[in-house]
Amino acid sequence: xxxxxxxxxxxxxxxxxxxxxxxxxSVGGIVYQNLVAGFHGQVYGINPKxxxxxxxxIFSTIDEVAQPVDLAVITTPAxxxxxxxxSCGKQGIKAVMVLSASxxxxxxxxTTLQKTIIDTARMYGVRILGPNCxxxxxxxxxxxxxxxxxNALPGRLALVSQSGALCTAILDWAHxxxxxxxxxxxxGTFADIDFSEVLDYLASDLKTESILLYIEGIQHARGxxxxxxxxxxxxxxxxxxxxxxxxxxxxxxxxxxxDDVFHAALNxxxxxxxxxxxxxxxxxxxxxxxxxxxxxxxxxxxNGGGPGAMAADRVADLNIRLAEFSPKTMEKxxxxxxxxxxxxxxxxxxxxATPERYRQTLExxxxxxxxxxxxxxLTPQAMTRPEEVAEIxxxxxxxxxxxxxxxxxxxxQISKGCQVFVKAGIPTFRTPEPAVDAFSYIAAYHxxxxxxxxxxxxxxxxxxPDVEGARMLIESAMSERRSVLNEVESKALLAAFHIPVAxxxxxxSPNEALxxxxxxxxxxxxxxxxxxxxxxxxxxxxxxGLDNAHAVRAGxxxxxxEVKKNxxxxxxxxxxxxxxxxxxxxxxxxxGVTNDPVFGPIITFGAGGIMVxxxxxxxxxxxxxxxxxxxxLIDRTRIATVLGQFRHMPPVNRAALENVLLRVSEMVxxxxxxxxxxxxxxxxxxxxxxxxxxxxxxDHIPAFSAPYEHMAIHPYPSHLSSQWQLPDGTxxxxxxxxxxxxxxxxxxxxxxxxxxxxxxxxxxxQELTPSMLARFTxxxxxxxxxxxxxxxxxxxxxxxGVTRYAINPDxxxxxxxxxVADAWQGHGIGSRLMVCLMGAARARGLKVMQGxxxxxxxxxxxxxxxxxxxxxxxxxxxxxxRAIKVLNP
Length: 889
What we know:
Elements (H helix, E strand, L loop, with lengths): L6 H4 L3 E5 L8 H12 L3 E5 L5 E2 L2 E4 L11 E4 L6 H10 L4 E4 L9 H16 L3 E3 L5 E4 L4 E4 L6 E9 L2 H14 L2 E7 L8 H9 L6 E6 L5 H14 L2 E5 L4 H6 L7 H10 L3 E3 L2 H11 L9 E6 L2 H13 L3 E2 L4 H10 L10 E2 L6 H13 L5 E6 L7 H12 L6 E5 L6 H10 L3 E2 L2 H21 L14 H13 L4 E2 L1 H10 L8 E3 L2 H11 L3 E5 L13 E5 L2 H18 L8 E5 L7 E10 L3 E8 L4 H4 L2 E4 L5 H9 L18 H17 L3 E12 L2 E4 L2 E5 L23 E4 L5 E6 L5 H10 L2 H8 L8 H8 L6 E10 L2 E12 L5 E8 L8 H15 L4 E7 L3 H9 L3 E4 L6 E7 L3
Parallel strand pairs: 1-2, 1-5, 2-4, 5-6, 6-7, 10-11, 10-12, 12-13, 13-14, 15-16, 15-17, 15-18, 18-19, 19-20, 36-37
Antiparallel strand pairs: 3-4, 8-9, 8-11, 21-31, 22-25, 23-24, 23-25, 26-27, 26-29, 27-28, 29-30, 29-31, 32-33, 33-34, 34-35, 35-36, 37-39, 38-39
Helix pairs in contact: 3-4, 6-7, 10-16, 11-16, 12-13, 13-14, 14-15, 17-18, 19-20, 22-23
């Protein structure tokens, strides 16, 4: 891959400032002065009103600049910008920053103006950051293309913000705190370049170690989540999302959906979310630490009971855990600590604690398998030696793999001790609460990385759902101009995806209700069947436990009377009759589907029954789900605590509950018409799960929608699977790779000859490292694809070959790779894999496929020529050839 297409934006060698002037209070004047004062490259001022500023020539137009220009910064009024962009495009400038305001944010008239600017830019291949943004800082090259009076310190943090005002506040705070940045990027209203493209650049930026995001709202969920996941795989990403509450959402142009949905999206993408700017930098400090925990159990060591109690309270606030020490650990602590130590966690080692007592306690706590991290607190008391204790603690920490955080409380007496920790790279704080916060961020990062790596495989590996039948059922309802399915249709839809349902039939008279009750057997339940009534009980539309003929007929009439009284305008289409479900050990749960304005379909889970809204027990997740994600969704609810053994009731069948969630995830993926769904109650007991009631709302989808276009996270692309047969009769399946193929992939690489491995990896690699294996099998199908060819041998899957593409940052081209097992070369497998890969790339809208091939890999070069690739020599490396094919002209 060549240089990133946004390199001229973020690392320009020359900058032109449109609107440069000598006014100290104007945007153009400040930007120009900032660049002239510090930028390592060339700066050109453009303004027809000036011939020079401070002895430096100013040009009337960009045409007068005789040298190449990488970046144009525009500070002129909105109506002048379209012609400026056109002139930049004609001069070959591909990156433009628009700092000017008065566009979409000010009304319909200027919305048209913004569209004109974007259309002009696209005509000339120009990319725009902004409008209405503060600009960009890249301290290492002296680039301050902003109207902020001041500079950022160089560092390893990248800050990306939608708010220019917040950027200036953060910069002011960070300078005083000594915090440095690799980049400060204000993206404004992102009329063109948005979060996803900036994240893609920063993910590959060698100067950036961590990424900080300030988010008000997003526009394109799929690209945003995909870019977040790609960035979070390689470096910590920390986000502040405002608009958590209604008042906050009113103050910004927020994305308009529920905050817990946005939170679920960030977690799924591996992002650590914080609430304040101070927490953002605390998290950045913590995640810069070299150690990562395997859980959230914290041990606290302190020489004062009060600070230890403060830290323990904060642990409870954050829903992390105080570690419980093993008997062996307690015995060791009892052997050397004073008899009146706290005998628990926090470990109060008493105010006269010596450096040696700190060392022993720390080592014992670190060795306990039930401890995931340690916080060491010191308060300066008369007998305390803060600097010596710090040196002992730092030396002990260097030998341990678990994270250590410190809190040296005070100021003057502990300053040298804090310097010891700074030098050792150990996070240190002045009060207990932010120290505990820091551990919670490290623990959250670990947990979210596990969520990030969850790439659900095929929708069904066992019994396939009747997707076609479900589609026909939905289309039938929509053909009648109905968006709400009745209870029978809703349950039929669930049954098509093998979700157990309580059988239901519709009666349209008291006698029909009686006939159905006799068929089902008493007792039965009656429910009003109405597209207008969601909560049937509140409208008097439910009768339960009817155990004889008289009760059924009377119940039918009572429901009609009650509903007409309470909901006189509701449409009633008969009464639903079903067997009365009696499960003495059952727990009433709710599984739902709703559609977020940006992230599309989401799955909700929580307590069910008539108390669902009162309890407010809801956890949300973005589909697709796998077993791990389903378990995580369940465990985030309060109702999860009663799913195990509870009083006299045995634990529920969790596997059955997880299966229903996975089947709902299938429905969401395969049925883009699905807008809302409530399974309430879903009764789960020790024997299984049963959907007692269901309600489904559907709607039309845009014509010619691509598969899974309605989802924020691309599910497993089953439609790319195909069957094939070799000339000798060997059956071969070509399908997208999935996470559970890790061992299959490892065996495949181990079985390659040294030559084949060298041709593929261009190194003497013997086998894939764990991180490479995860990277190759846990892929984001939205930005890459890997197809494997497999066959069955002695009842076991064998991998014959694999090909893959990765989309380049320009979003239009991709890099490919291909390798076939040595024993299977010459059978047409490589050709077949490449044809399937090119088809997938075309369907994705990619225009060009290209790849580097070693010059002595003659068989691969011949294959590429047969497939229509153009082979080009490399000017930089004579050992390499480049194969290029245009897919979509």
